């Protein structure tokens, strides 16, 4: 069986759906990372129940943060990480053009690197 025949068994990937899922997870990750830091700080200070907790999902959320950390730090190169960090992990809203200029990337190269970064994150997290 040729490589092309083997690849034909793989289902088509909806790139837009993958991108939207990864972006949603990145935005959730920001909040969960702060939540984990707050819990750690509360534990260090011996404070329990500082805020009401409607859901008991601490271990689940900490695992999501740990796995997202690993995906970001180990599967992205420097340009990919910089784009993702500036675009989705920063509390400031930054336009693609600003990031392109800051990183010295041309438009086509920027979008190629951004697309690859999202694909790498999706693969590392098991989304695709």
UniProtKB/TrEMBL annotation:
Q: What domain of life? A: Bacteria
**Mind telling me which InterPro entries this protein's record contains?**
ArpU-like (IPR006524)
- NCBIfam families, alphabetized: phage_arpU
The protein, known as: ArpU family transcriptional regulator
Organism of derivation: Bacillus subtilis
Query: Which taxonomic lineage is given here?
Result: Bacteria, Bacillati, Bacillota, Bacilli, Bacillales
